[in-house]
Amino acid sequence: MGRGGEGGPTAGLPRKMSFEKLKEIGGNVKQDLIVLKSMWFSRSKGEDHASRLESFYSPQAHAYDRFRASFLWGRQPMLATTSARIRDVEDAVWVDLGGGTGENVDMMSEYIPLKHFKAIYIVDLCHSLCEQAKKKVEQKGWKNVYVVEADACEFAPSTKADLVTFSYSLSMIPPFHSAVDKAISYLSKSGYVGVCDFYVSSKYDLPLRQMSWFRRFFWRSIFDTDNIDIGPERRNYLDHNMERVWEYNGQGSIPYVPYLRAPWYVWVGRLKDAHAGYTDHEAKVEAPPLFPPTFLYNMSWEDPEADMDVLELSENDRLLTLTSGGCNSLNLLLQGVKEVVSVDCNPAQTALLELKATAIARLPYEDVWKMFGEGRHPQIDRIYRHHLAPFMTEVSNKFWNNKLYHFERGLYYSGCMGKLCWAFRILCSLCGMTGTRLRLANAKTLEEQREIWNKIWMVRFFKYGPPFLVWIVLKFLTWIFLNRFVLWFGGGVPTKQYKLIQKDGISISSYLARTFDGVAQHSHLRTHNLFYYSQLMGRYNKESCPEYLKEANFERLKAGLLANLTISTGFFNDELKARKYTKVILMDHVDWMDPEAAQNVVQLLGRQVLPGGRVIWRSASLCPPYVAMMESAGFDVKCVQRADRPDCYYMDRVNMYNSFYVAVRRASLGGGN
Q1: 3-class SS at 290?
Q2: Which parts of the chain span the membrane according to its record (predicted)?
Q3: Which of 9, 135, 316, 323 qualifies as a cystine partner to 342, CB 3.0-4.6 A?
């Protein structure tokens, strides 16, 4: 008999359910084969476009929706993106050109209630598809949905439309110029046009659209057999006649066709000059630089409080900074500066900052706190698809489409530095120090924190243990945990920076001992040191968090300060050349460079920083070699802090650099450069 219950009254139920399931699968496969037969073996016939559509779709109209659900990958992102932009429009009018069976209307209800629309028009030239749409409207009880059997090139609603969509239909309209022109003619001034379709690029196209010659030839010829023209002309015409505000280029699988993935795109645009004064950065289309497919830093790892003491910011400042985790870029906006340009050559760091900025702009404070305060959100997938993805660039979308699990596992144990902190947490657990870790992070006072720190057996061993034994243990730990591989991929310390530390005659173990001991002795983690608190706990608390996560500051950013942020994926020098600046934050960027590259940056700073402007940087070196370069390029340089000074054992809340410098651009070069 084996398991209990196998001989009971429900013994035959699983077998019956399996048979019903197999019968359902068989029926679905049969319907799919009907569609595939029409697509692969039938040929459109007729004297005009309407009759050709009818001959093609009539045999498969009843099975159209199920098969296309696993083939037309662009529909949902198009509907999510367009619905997000018209949520605040009262009594909106939507025209779905080439709307077929009305499936788009059903899908739209996932993103916005259909009662939001005053009228929805499903327009199609194919009689069989329109009949299916009419059945659906009746079955669903949609009172504001109208099926119109008409040519998209001629149809016009009785009122202006707030949304016009072409869902895999523009490629099947031969006079596509006329269809686009007609749609524009009745689009409201604040309305949007959304298009999703298959595509091939032109030979010289935008970087993220670009394809090889073979893919261009192969896919265009395949679709051409069904009178579907997926050439670049249609999207080029949209770009020419409208303002593109959002775009995504992807590829998706084809049912019953292994390995091949068909290219598809989503394009959203609006009338040119319709939103005068409105800044929309989502339209930026660029090719991401080559970089590891994750972020090194899940948070900014430099103390902005120390920066504010020397930057002397004003409302007229245009400031350039490296993005890193993006927290400090947002903090700079809160200082009321004119513009913050945040650049990083790692597109993953850009994606992280863009997600933070978009979340602030589009979500309530509670959701933003869960995402970036706690590092977890139970509804991240829904929130991202509905509210964030429609307003983010393609590069960032492609990153987060596959990385939302970071907000399920914990953002602050993700990325290279996050993994290192996660490994430290596991090590604490293996050593029986979990309780100590929690007590240290949540000590009520700095005095209590010091007491806990000084009683940790490992700290006591390194401070007071036998010197020879301490030396042996340090050598072993350096070999295992503090080697160059771990420091680079876990801590973001490249080889050139590692060598700067060695050049000062400081071992990496001594360097880190000063870092951590200085913080533990002088900075209260639970109420003030957000950097180490988050690494110990995997989250922030309301007392110890970045400025943008404090509710009052969040509201200021949402109210308009975000408009002063420019986010760029690219190289620092390119953004430095692009405009003049009054303030530049180098972080430890120049530590990573060889002398020739450092000289190039310094010369650019001399040309692009306005007289009186300030440049600040930190270094792993006590006296970095590029200080003299800065002086010769027209700057007065001052060392603000050096770790070998008695009063600099604890420099700031991060405490991870050996020196901190500020340089002020002189009014004239005085023969330097």
Answers
A1: coil
A2: 468-489
A3: 323
Q: Are 583 and 360 in contact (CB under 8 A)?
A: no
Written as six digits, the tokens of 493 are: 């310390």
For the chain, which domains are there? 61-270 (3.40.50.150), 304-414+565-665 (3.40.50.150), 416-537 (no CATH)
How far is Cα 407 from Cα 161, in angstroms, rounded to an integer? 38
Whether the pTM exceeds 0.85: the reply is no
Q: What is the mean pLDDT of residues 569-579?
A: 93
State percent of the chain over pLDDT 90.
Answer: 64
CA 150, 152, 156, 157 torsion-angle sign: positive
How far out from the chain centre does Cα 188 lie?
30
CA dist., res. 380 & res. 306, Å (int) = 34
Q: Could you tell me the strand order of the sheet in which 117-124 lies? A: 145-149, 117-124, 92-97, 161-167, 187-198, 257-270, 243-254
- Give Cα 355 to chain centroid, integer Å: 5
CA distance 619 to 344: 18
pLDDT in tens, 94-151: 999 999 899 999 999 999 999 999 999 999 998 989 999 999 999 999 999 999 999 9
In this structure, are strands 187-198 and 161-167 parallel, antiparallel, or unpaired?
A: parallel
| β-pair type (565-569, 339-344) | parallel
Structure tokens at 608: 């692009």
